[in-house]
Hints:
The protein is of the alpha/beta class.
Amino acid sequence: MRIIAGTLRGRVLAGPKGRDVRPTAARAREAVFNMLNSHANVDGVQVLDLFCGTGALGLEALSRGAAHVTFVDLDSQYAQQNVTKFGVTGTCTVIKANALRYKPLAPADIIFLDPPYNLGLTEKTLAMHASIGKSGTIWVVEAETGRIGPDLTHLGPFTHIAERTYGAGTITLLRQN
Length: 177
């Protein structure tokens, strides 16, 4: 896995090996940022990457101009390893915590939500964290295709912006009202 655009383009991400891991594929990450570019500016924004795993989404945002990324995961070792390896410790914070219970100190402009599939964490996290953004915050939600309906707006003060399906995952963009 590599960063696909921006100042970190081509850098190889460290990550666990095995079938139990589901990093966001390059094609899906490219789609995420194409969707974001149509609805938000990544330059200079604060990003929160919940269930960050390797940190691929947050590092891609940083590479494309985000000012700061906060990575949150119970197993944050690969995100920390990548942040250190890429020399971006000054613009990143890696927090080892349960993303479901994490409360940020300040609202983010963009929130990536990519929990493990088949555990019902997408709905729980959106419902519990509906107040951690601010008006205009963009939520990028990746969930297993067919597991949840396209309308996630009932889980909080959200407006559905866009949606794309890539393989086993569906990416949904929501704007916080």
